[in-house]
TrEMBL record:
The keyword Nucleotidyltransferase does not apply. The keyword Transmembrane helix applies. It is found in: Cell inner membrane. It comes from the Bacteria. This is Cytochrome ubiquinol oxidase subunit I. GO terms for molecular function: oxidoreductase activity. It is a multi-pass membrane protein. The chain crosses the membrane at residues 20-43, 55-72, 92-117, 129-152, 190-209, 221-239, 391-412, 424-447, 474-497. Belongs to the cytochrome ubiquinol oxidase subunit 1 family.
């Protein structure tokens, strides 16, 4: 990677965004799981469920606080490193971010305090309402962030204003109900639910292996396996929907993910594995599944999915169209009110391709002076590097199916085998704890890297979006962010491990007393004491 302002700005934002997203999925999922556990407590009045709610709620709180700290610094970068982007699309992009901060985040933060400090001050039902409001606030916060990001993937409800030289919102409704944003939201939150389920499953399995907190661990596994199975199945279904939306709105991203260099006859096959070669424009040793890509991408057996070569040719035509829009725009701004109607008509006819003319700015100051060679180079820039996308997507999908298998197994053991779990399965669950984060980060990599060279797809190239900074400025701030985030990472891991080792210390006496009475009732009823099987069983 060449050391320049654009690449350093991208590196810094990628580092902060992907680090921040380490906290987001667990926050989304644990908030729901904790609310489910407290619901069971209110319905059954069993203290073990209160203990579970408090324990997993503590881990949620640690993760939530550190997630907030990393999220704030990430948003500052729009003004620091991406000033032209903020100017050009701030009218649209800023609206959902402002709503997220004013509505969702403040609701979430307010009720988090009531959740932790209101146990002895609120009634059980009132506290349950608080728990669900925390969960709703967490997910509602993600909704507005993903609406903003979805607009970057599919910029609807906006148009370019030649007077202000900015994109301006024309329909808030279209921005909010952007189909790409909605697909990203449901897919992302489902992935967060899987992350939290695997986390709860793994930590609970560790307790069973150590012979500690048996009742809490088994009940937690039952909740995590049930919730996680539904969520893992949802991720696959909703991921399929994201693939369909990419066919409609981001054809180049889909072609790069698939390593589809040329348009295939319908229905296109899916490349299971292979080795993409960007120079030869070929995927070596590819293993194909017939018809599958056509069904995923088009929901039909008759529609084609365009390949990279054909999309590059289409990009060349859009660049030429964009040059006409750029030419009209320059003349309109020079002539102002005296601009003839034919110039306005020319701009309106080609304005959708103005962003493609901006791709030439990398090679020439005035896109109207671009040579055929420069147009071809700019068109080739619309192709992201294929092999990282190709493999990131397949590893992510492979992990997704592994989560389904894991959840099916533990769901079966929890419901039909008396909550007994073989030790190898428990060890596997512990080792699986980091994998949902790997899958989630790969998912974001595919979504964002696959959009390059665009900050806003088809509208604003990344190379135009950066602030006027020096390399020294970026290196200093990058080093500062790395240092700050490394410290937070150490704090996060340290606190999580501390409270996991400490275990559910809350309400232990109350829970033990209730369990003793419960066992006595069962013993006097049928003469059998419910035993706690050893981890070996």
């Amino acid at each position: 990677m060449e050391l320049d302002v654009v690449e350093l700005s991208r590196l810094q934002f990628a580092m902060t965004a992907m680090y921040h997203f380490l906290f987001v999925p667990l926050t989304l999922g644990l908030s729901i799981i904790v609310a489910i556990m407290e619901t069971v407590y209110v319905m059954t009045n069993r203290p073990i469920w209160r203990q579970m709610t408090k324990f997993w709620g503590t881990l949620f709180g640690i993760n939530f606080v550190l997630g907030v700290a990393t999220g704030i610094t990430m948003e500052f970068q729009f003004g620091m490193n991406w000033a032209y982007y903020s100017h050009y699309v701030g009218d649209i992009f800023g609206a959902p971010l402002a709503i997220e901060g004013l509505m969702a985040f403040f609701m979430e933060a307010t009720f988090v305090g009531l959740f932790f400090f209101g146990w002895d001050k609120l009634s059980k039902r009132a506290h349950l309402v608080v728990a669900w409001l925390v969960a709703i606030g967490s997910n509602f916060s993600a909704l507005w962030i993903l609406i903003a990001n979805g607009w970057m993937q599919n910029p609807v409800g906006a148009e370019f204003n030649p007077v202000s030289m900015r994109m301006e919102m024309t329909s808030f409704f279209e921005v909010v109900f952007n189909e790409v944003a909605q697909a990203k939201f449901v897919h992302t939150v489902s992935a967060g639910y899987v992350t939290a389920s695997v986390f709860v499953l793994g930590v609970s399995s560790w307790y069973l292996l150590k012979g500690r907190h048996i009742d809490l661990a088994r009940r937690s596994i039952a909740v995590a396996a049930s919730f996680g199975l539904a969520s893992a199945l949802s991720v696959v279904v909703l991921g399929d929907e994201s693939g369909y939306e990419a066919t409609l709105n981001q054809k180049m991203k889909l072609a790069a993910i698939e390593g589809m260099w040329h348009t295939e006859p319908a229905p296109a096959s899916f490349t299971l594995v292979g080795f993409p070669d960007s120079e030869a424009r070929e995927t070596h040793y590819a293993i194909h599944i017939p018809w599958m890509m056509g069904l995923i991408g088009t929901r039909s057996l008759t529609e084609e999915i365009p390949g990279i070569t054909e999309l590059v040719e289409a990009a060349e035509e859009r660049i030429r169209s964009g040059i006409l829009a750029y030419d009209a725009l320059v003349q309109i701004r020079e002539l102002k009110e005296s601009a003839p109607a034919n110039l306005t008509a020319q701009f309106e006819e080609h304005s959708d391709d103005l962003g493609y003319a901006f791709l030439l700015k990398r090679y020439v100051d005035d896109p109207r002076e671009a040579t055929e060679e420069q147009i071809a180079m700019a068109a080739n820039d619309t192709v992201p590097t294929v092999w990282p996308l190709f493999w990131a997507f397949r590893i992510m999908v492979g992990l997704g199916f592994a989560f389904i298998g894991l959840m099916v197994y533990f769901f079966y053991r929890a419901n039909w085998k008396g909550m007994t779990f073989p030790r190898p399965a428990l060890h596997l669950a512990v080792w699986m704890i980091p994998t949902p984060w790997i899958a989630a980060e790969l998912g974001w990599f595919v979504a964002e890297y696959g959009r390059q060279p665009w900050t806003v797809d088809g509208v604003l190239p990344t190379a135009m979006s950066v602030s006027h900074l020096t390399i020294a400025d970026l290196l200093i701030t990058l080093a500062g962010f790395i240092t700050f985030y490394t410290i937070l990472f150490v704090v996060e891991i340290g606190l999580m491990l501390k409270y996991i080792r400490k275990g559910p210390y809350m309400d232990v006496a109350e829970t033990d007393a209730w369990m003793e009475k419960h066992e006595h009732r069962l013993r006097t009823h049928d003469g059998r004491v419910p035993g706690i099987t050893t981890p070996a069983e």
